[in-house]
Design a protein that fits this description.
With 259 residues, this protein is of the alpha/beta class. Helix content is 32%, strand content 14%. The chain contains 6 helices and 8 strands, in the order H-H-E-H-E-H-E-H-E-E-E-H-E-E. The relative contact order is 0.16.
Length: 259
């Protein structure tokens, strides 16, 4: 590796550490993980759905829902790579009443990394979405990073309109058939920065009051002589993804369909 490349790499790693982002091991930065045929098929389906949405709606009629979690981080990366360079990447973030500082830092860093135009709201999700639509009446559709394994998302379709009194938006779910391990395979294969909490024993993130360390990742580290938590991508049983979450939180744009 040339000297200039090594210097750039060192500066980049220090920048990530300063912003409290996950810093991949140096040896993995040049590593290229090959996606399985199954995951490549899922990615192609996701890209096809996104392409269909971009052809069906004008750029200012589309919005991406982004909260800094692993799923929407993958969705953000896929959408960013597909949109025309001249089209701004527009997203919305509804801040919870007690967010993790690490998550807030990651969201800010993602805005810079992707050049997002991020609309920020606080409070009850439904009220925030209503305010967003009122302030942006041209909006017609929103990308969401939900998967079928998420609570109440089993019966969702790729595209479904909001109902039950929510604003009139078409919900688009490009990652519905992706698994927990699919998400982490994509993140690691593309060396995407992600919220550092995922390296500390958290597998699913909400606000501070509803999110705990996942006991499924607790192991005894002989080299340190103490109990420690593995990274989220090391979770073997994906059914335990939300074992660290109290589900009594605010509704999501996806959940309202099944209630």
């Amino acid at each position: 590796m040339k000297l200039a490349s090594r210097i750039w790499l060192g500066v980049w790693l220090q920048h990530l550490k300063f912003r409290r982002l996950h810093v991949p091991p140096a040896e993995s930065l040049m590593e290229k993980t090959i996606l399985s045929a199954e995951l490549r098929d899922k990615l192609e389906h996701s890209q096809g759905l996104i392409k269909h949405a971009m052809a069906s709606y004008k750029p200012d009629e589309l919005m991406l829902c982004f909260n800094g979690g692993k799923d929407c981080t993958v969705l953000l990366d896929i959408v960013a790579k597909m949109k025309p360079p001249s089209v701004p990447l527009r997203a919305v973030y509804v801040k919870s009443h007690d967010p993790f500082e690490e998550m807030e830092c990651f969201i800010d860093a993602s805005v810079q990394r992707y050049g997002m135009e991020l609309l920020r709201y606080e409070g009850v999700l439904k009220v925030a979405i209503e305010q967003m639509v009122q302030e942006n009446p041209q909006l017609k559709a929103i990308f969401l990073g939900c998967r079928r394994s998420d609570p109440t998302c089993l019966k969702l379709a790729d595209m479904m309109p909001c109902d039950n009194g929510w604003p009139s938006l078409m919900r688009i779910f490009p990652l519905l058939d992706w698994s927990y391990h699919d998400i982490w395979t994509y993140v690691r294969a593309h060396e995407l920065p992600y919220c550092s909490l995922y390296d500390q024993g958290y597998t699913s993130l909400g606000d501070r009051s509803s999110t705990r360390l996942n006991p499924s990742l607790l192991v005894y580290d002989e080299s340190q002589g103490k109990l420690t938590y593995r990274a989220a991508y090391e979770l073997k049983d994906s059914r335990l993804e939300r074992a660290n979450r109290d589900e009594h939180g605010q509704k999501s744009v996806a959940k309202e369909k099944n209630e």
